[in-house]
């Protein structure tokens, strides 16, 4: 039973990171109606930015996190301005393939800058804590708390601000939002910056939790992110947190009782099952048969 | 000899690209599992020909079958796997959902092969198929390489003729009609899933065959030979050559493989940065994909002029199964008797409309 609770504890920490990445992915989808295959690269960029920054700021975790978020936001802005807006009006799959090209470019630019070998942060994982039945390190607890904080901030942003109202309007219908006087381009820009910042921060916590990382960090996490997003339902920011919880717990528990090498295999099987039976998310009562991407 | 091997490799990939083009170019399905079919075909060709494994090496089967029979069996198994993945992914999922599902499937396969050593010896991979038939044909090593190139080129011509014929056949037109507008095609009585499914299996069969050829060509295969990046090069080649146009696709592969690999050989690769040249090559591939998509999505050679248009309109959602079923009995016999071309014309008219609507979304 102890093993079970420990694996749930790790699962919760995985789910926290996953929820950060997935909520950013789903925000990008909500305003631009595209699946961003270069999303994993936001995470990688955040992780490497924090890696570069840690020496300047003497291993200050908070400063590293801020740098990661800032780098992610810059990457989000650049991608939206340089690619997504350039491809406006093209089919979703065309943009998807183009972002795949971006993913390849970013990954290899990072290889040229930092080398293909893995790097490690200088931060410690902190002590082990028994919290109820769970066993967490200090950084696990920080991860979970920060994920909850980000969830809260995003909720407040979307529900209580003019910006959030505009985002919701654009995700319903961009053209209609525009004729109603919403500066759609600017709001979409801001959304990408927000999503990039969340993703960059997620990349930093992911890299810190994994301990050692390379240029493929984000790409490897992308399919998990997509699985969590689909579990919640694409374009639904709140449901995404539920999706991340399901996926994080499911793969961690399955991995504990078989082998951690097969964790991702379970994630992909879960993804295929979701696609088959619940392509619009597990929280929708009846999934439509036809899926429009 | 260097050029013989470069051209052989390009020839093998041209066959692969023809298969992928049937799925993506004509069917419109962005398949990310495709390179997995080559890998499986390659692995199977090995384990069926190289005999029992000597410990600590381990893999399944380990037969001593003739190479041609092995490739045939490999193709059959590959088509079987594609039948399962296609049945799951093609029925209701389109566009990104389809792409992600196939990516999930191939990633699961990849992790399984890498981590489960009894299958194909995990990360080490399988090897040992060295110039099969060389002694029987009484050839020198170089002679064998040239004969193999000849075989590859003959197979490429055969594959081209087959694909070209298929392209102009009712099946090819049906597939394009389905790609342009599934609802319209279904309304004209075309089996949407059936058309896509058959195209998928055909493409996978070519990939399996390519896997067999690849096994003979490189005589070793391990997980690093089928990373996701490999598939992107094929997509880039199809994009450059002209999606949907078999001649363009072959040209694209030769341009990308030979032009690219040869030109980028002269990229500086300082000893302190051994990763530089391969990384720079990947960056160029990525750039090429983006620039082609942005500025010339139809590629160097358009899909057959007069019959079809280059840019892909947003693929419409699949008609719900119930609606599809309802559409079929409603067909009158005159409608069914109409020429096949009408469906694709109607599909194109409708598709034009969808595209405009899509732009304001």
Provide an overview of this structure:
The complex is a heterodimer of chains A (293) and B (361). With 293 residues, chain A is mainly alpha-helical. Helices cover 73% and strands 4% of the residues of chain A. Chain A has helices at 2-32, 39-56, 61-84, 92-114, 138-160, 162-172, 174-179, 184-210, 217-232, 237-257, 263-277, and strands at residues 119-120, 128-131, 134-137, 212-213. In chain A, strands 1-4 form a two-stranded antiparallel ribbon. In chain A, strand 2 (128-131) and strand 3 (134-137) form a beta hairpin. The longest helix of chain A is centred in the first third of the chain and has 31 residues, at 2-32. The relative contact order of chain A is 0.20. Chain B is mainly α and 361 residues long. Chain B has a domain at 2-226. In chain B, 70% of the residues lie in helices and 1% in strands. Chain B contains 16 helices and 2 strands. Chain B has a two-stranded antiparallel sheet with strand order 1-2. Chain B is globular, with a radius of gyration of 22 Å. Classes of the chains: A mainly alpha (293), B mainly alpha (361). Chains A and B meet through helix 4, helix 9 and helix 11 of A and helix 4, helix 11, helix 13 and helix 16 of B.
Brief account:
Chain A is mainly alpha-helical. Chain A is built from 11 helices and 4 strands, in the order H-H-H-H-E-E-E-H-H-H-H-E-H-H-H.
Key terms for this structure?
heterodimer; A: 293 residues; mainly alpha; two-stranded antiparallel sheet; two-stranded antiparallel ribbon; 11 helices; B: 361 residues; 16 helices; 2 strands; 70% helix; disordered C terminus
């Amino acid at each position: 039973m102890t093993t079970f609770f420990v694996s749930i504890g790790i699962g919760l920490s995985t789910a926290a990171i996953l929820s950060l990445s997935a909520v950013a992915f789903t925000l990008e989808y909500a305003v631009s109606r595209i699946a961003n295959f270069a999303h994993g690269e936001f995470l990688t960029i955040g992780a490497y930015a924090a890696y570069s920054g840690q020496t300047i700021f003497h291993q200050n975790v908070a400063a590293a996190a801020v740098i990661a978020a800032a780098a992610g936001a810059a990457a989000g802005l650049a991608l939206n301005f340089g690619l997504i807006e350039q491809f406006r009006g093209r089919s979703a799959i065309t943009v998807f393939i183009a972002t795949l090209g971006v993913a390849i470019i970013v990954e290899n630019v990072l290889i040229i800058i930092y080398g293909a070998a893995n790097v490690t942060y200088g931060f410690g994982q902190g002590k082990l804590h028994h919290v109820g039945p769970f066993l967490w390190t200090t950084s696990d607890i920080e991860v979970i708390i920060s994920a909850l904080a980000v969830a809260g901030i995003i909720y407040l942003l979307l529900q209580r601000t003019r910006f959030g109202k505009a985002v919701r309007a654009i995700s319903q219908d961009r053209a209609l939002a525009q004729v109603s006087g919403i500066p759609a381009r600017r709001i979409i820009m801001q959304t990408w910056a927000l999503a990039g910042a969340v993703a960059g921060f997620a990349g930093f916590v992911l890299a810190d939790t994994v301990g050692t990382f390379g240029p493929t960090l984000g790409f490897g996490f992308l399919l998990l992110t997509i699985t969590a997003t689909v579990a919640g339902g694409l374009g639904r920011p709140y449901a995404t947190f539920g999706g991340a919880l399901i996926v994080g717990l499911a793969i961690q528990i399955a991995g504990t009782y078989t082998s951690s090498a097969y964790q991702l295999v379970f994630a992909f099987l879960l993804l295929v099952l979701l696609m088959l039976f619940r392509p619009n998310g597990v929280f929708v009562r009846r999934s439509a048969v036809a899926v429009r991407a | 000899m260097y050029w013989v091997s470069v051209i052989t490799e390009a020839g093998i990939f041209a066959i692969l690209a023809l298969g992928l083009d049937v799925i993506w170019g004509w069917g419109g399905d962005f398949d990310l599992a495709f390179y997995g079919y080559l890998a499986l075909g390659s692995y199977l060709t090995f384990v069926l020909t190289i005999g029992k494994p000597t410990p600590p090496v381990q893999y399944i089967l380990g037969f001593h079958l003739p190479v041609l029979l092995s490739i045939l069996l490999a193709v059959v198994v590959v088509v079987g796997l594609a039948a399962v993945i296609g049945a799951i992914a093609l029925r209701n999922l389109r566009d990104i959902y389809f792409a992600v599902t196939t990516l999930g499937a191939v990633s699961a396969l990849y992790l399984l092969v890498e981590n489960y050593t009894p299958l194909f010896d995990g990360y080490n991979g399988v090897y040992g198929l060295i110039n099969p038939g060389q002694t029987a044909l009484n050839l020198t090593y170089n002679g064998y390489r040239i004969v193999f190139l000849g075989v590859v080129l003959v197979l490429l011509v055969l594959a081209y003729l087959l694909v070209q014929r298929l392209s102009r056949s009712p099946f090819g037109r049906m597939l394009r009609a389905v790609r342009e507008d599934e609802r319209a095609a279904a309304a004209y009585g075309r089996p949407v899933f059936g058309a896509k499914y058959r195209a998928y299996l055909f493409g996978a069969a070519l990939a399996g065959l390519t896997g067999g050829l690849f096994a003979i060509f490189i005589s070793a295969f391990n997980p690093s030979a089928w990373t996701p990046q490999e598939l992107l090069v094929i997509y880039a080649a199809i994009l450059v050559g002209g999606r949907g146009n078999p001649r363009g696709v072959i040209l694209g592969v030769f341009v990308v493989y030979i032009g690219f690999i040869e030109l980028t050989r002269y990229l500086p690769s300082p000893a302190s940065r051994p990763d530089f040249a391969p990384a720079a090559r990947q960056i160029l591939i990525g750039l090429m994909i983006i620039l082609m998509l942005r500025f010339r999505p139809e590629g160097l050679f358009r899909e057959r002029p007069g019959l079809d248009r280059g840019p892909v309109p947003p693929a419409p959602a699949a008609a719900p199964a119930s609606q599809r079923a309802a559409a079929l009995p409603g067909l009158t016999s005159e409608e069914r008797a109409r020429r096949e071309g009408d469906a694709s014309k109607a599909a194109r008219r409708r598709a034009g409309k969808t595209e405009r609507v899509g732009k304001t979304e």
